[in-house]
Amino acid sequence: MPGPGGTSRTDAAFAALARLSVRLRWPLVVIWVALAALVPQVLPSLSSETKANNSDFLPKGTPILRAADLAKPFQARNAFSTLLVAGRSGGPLSDADQAAFDRAETAIAHDRSVLDVRDQGLSGDRQARRALIEFRPNVRFDSAEPLFGRMRGAIASAGAPPGLSVHLAGPFAQAVDSRIHDKRSRSLTSQLAILFIIALLLVVFRAVLAPLITLLPAGLSLVVAGPLIGEAAKAGVEVSSLTQILLTVIVLGAGTDYGLFLIYRVREELAAGSEPHAAVSRALSRVGETISFSAACVVCALLSLVLADFGLYRGLGPGLAIGIAVVLIAGLTLLPALLAIFGRVAFWPTHPRPGHEYRGAWGRLASRVIERPRRTLGVGVALFVALALGLLAYQPAGFGSRSAPGGSDSAAGQRVLDAHFPLIVRNPTNVLFRLPKPVWSDPGPVATAGRALAAAPQFAGTLGPLDPNGRALTPAALVALHRQLGPPQRLPLREPRALAGRLPGAVYYVYRATASFISPDGATVQFYVRLRAGEPSSTAALNAVPAIRRTVAGVARRIGAVDQGVTGQAAASYDVSQVSTRDLKRLVPLVLLVIAILLAILLRSLVAPAYLIVSVGLSYLAGLGLAVAVFIGLAGEAGLNFVLPFMMFVFLMALGSDYNILVMTRIREEAATLPLHAAVRRALVATGGTVTSAGLVLAGTFAVLTATGDSQSQQLGLGLAAGVLLDTFFVRTLLIPSTVLLVGRRNWWPSRLARRELPEEEAPPAGVPSGSEPTAPSEVGV
């Protein structure tokens, strides 16, 4: 008999693959174990090829990147630098404190990986001090942990007096500490996901070995896929830390789903009386195409991300597609081999056997759907539309410099910065102008720009070339000091003795501080501004960026600047959000088209894919609306992370199609020989447990992110988990079957099945089985 929407040739191909897996079962197990042992040894780890800065992924020509080019004269000579900070609460730093800080600076400066240590002086309250540490060009993020260990050892050896805390701080230090934390977090994510899956499968199967057999191919695939993606990254594929986190949940979740598709069908065949080897062959011939097309939908949706402008999405797509491809191969080779080895023992102590189970939940649900398809569809659509209305309150949230892990050295350093250095210094928004003449010869434009920015409604405070550390310089004094001392970048940290008495008070240090605001050639200047909208990481600051840029452009025209720009967290968040939104609008139709084509090929229909795509889209909108209601409405957050709408769409569209495919192929298979009502009833009972179990597994693995990830991962995990649960319990089990019944045989147009007339039976009362219904072993344990 032809397979589910396919041909007997397709069934035969997968049956042949199953027979091969059965015959070579022991060699296949050995091969997969060997791959898991050897691949991580010969290929680079995924963690060594990560990219953590979202702005690194922006397309060329983005405003923040153009502004970053203007800011290059003010940046460290190497891409990586960090801060050394010291603080004392309750009083100013003593001479002993200062001496200890000097010793720490000197010791760190002698490290072979350190290029320079530039002291940046005391805080305004004189209770803290900081210095900028610049690293040599050979320092890389993936190899920085030993360097930070040596620097922290040097700090400990400096002998800080009691009450003085000395730490490393800043984005690079936080990234290194986060990397250490992430290693533990990824391990915890994997452990929690595995424990959750095993616990759920123990309940589902009521068997000891079946959960382990289901999970083993996915686990080995995860071990193999990581290094393969790392090798791809060496060839130019961008990989972010988000890839590592999602790879764990995607491979374990999807791999377990594909395993459930096959194992449930094997159990059904065993219950029908087949011998184990024959049951494996027949089951794979029936669901092999379903599993393959399910994985193909995910892979194609992920590969479409290579067309995204945002590099974070481009990096996610191919890497995760590799993971899905590996777990598909394992599901079609290793899993049948394991099932052939263990046979009926896999389901011990239960024994799959024929029998009607319509007294179970799926039998009752199937009868109710068949009795009232219009009411079921109407209520379901109304529920999803109501949830989607939550999108009316949607607000995107900016991303921040990643917070340091709690209890880390960089977190303590950040607390010192927050307590003693003003926001305008520790996290400024930078306004830059490129002038036609060096400021040394014409300081007038700088003075004009400073007054204009200070008067702008978007800014609550400014620092610039004429007031670099809170003390003012006149334009004439700036020119005179340059004539006397030369460029400020060349001045030593301490005032030379030869100048003692020649300059009044702290003028030397004020002029030296202008190096942070005037480029060495004097033609580029920058201002630190404090946003009136609030913290640069806030949604309000993100929304203020267009007005800020208009104001800065107006000031640039006023002073005759040849170029201008705005950098900082708010500007970067805004540009990332815009690029992400543009990708969402551009790639949504493409992903829909790709999945619709695959569904049309599998189901041999042009009608069914249309409403299946609509159902997944409705599920996505409802899931996103629910996320808005939870995070913005209940949790009081200012907005959703910018990646959430895009990631939810891609994964719910692709993974939701798995359940579409499973349910629809089974309905089509049964509709070849049964009236449509009976086919739907039989398919719902046979696949209900599979869909429920698979959905709970996938939702649970996503939900694990909430316990192990940062705020971004938590939003993504909860959003995807909610979307999967909505898809599992409402779309696949209620909306799709009721739609199939209302559309009738036209579901399969233009295939021959649409023209095949079979007598329809009357729908039985709720809970009463038809005499011709099949066994439903898939309900055991659900």
Description of the molecule:
This protein has 782 residues and is of the alpha+beta class. The chain folds into four domains: 9-42 and 206-354, Up-down Bundle (Multidrug efflux transporter AcrB transmembrane fold), CATH 1.20.1640.10; 80-176, Multidrug efflux transporter AcrB pore domain (Alpha-Beta Plaits, 2-Layer Sandwich); 356-400 and 588-782, Multidrug efflux transporter AcrB transmembrane fold (Up-down Bundle); 429-567, no CATH class. The chain has helices spanning 8-23, 25-42, 63-70, 95-109, 145-157, 171-205, 209-234, 241-271, 276-303, 311-342, 361-371, 373-388, 409-420, 423-426, 444-455, 475-485, 507-513, 539-559, 569-603, 608-634, 644-671, 676-703, 705-708, 711-743, and strands at residues 81-87, 114-122, 128-135, 165-169, 396-397, 429-434, 459-463, 524-531, 563-567, 640-641. The longest helix is centred in the first third of the chain and has 35 residues, at 171-205.
Q: What are its keywords?
A:
10 strands, about 775 residues, disordered N terminus, alpha+beta, four-stranded antiparallel β-sheet, 4 domains, Multidrug efflux transporter AcrB transmembrane fold, Alpha-Beta Plaits, 24 helices
Low-confidence stretches: 1-7, 355-359, 761-782
Classify the beta-strand content into a percent band.
Answer: 5-15%
Largest sheet: 4 strands, antiparallel
Corresponding CATH superfamily of the largest domain: Multidrug efflux transporter AcrB transmembrane domain
Instruction: Please state how the strands of the largest beta sheet are arranged side by side.
Output: 2-3-1-4
The total beta strand count reads 10
Helix content: 55-70%
N-to-C CA distance: 30 Å
Rg (CA only): 32 Å
Reported by name, the CATH topology of the largest domain is Multidrug efflux transporter AcrB transmembrane fold
CATH architecture classification name of the largest domain: Up-down Bundle
**SS-derived structural category:** alpha+beta
In DSSP terms (H or I, runs of 4 or more residues), the helix count works out at 24
CATH class bucket of the largest domain: Mainly Alpha
User: Residue-averaged pLDDT, rounded?
Assistant: 85
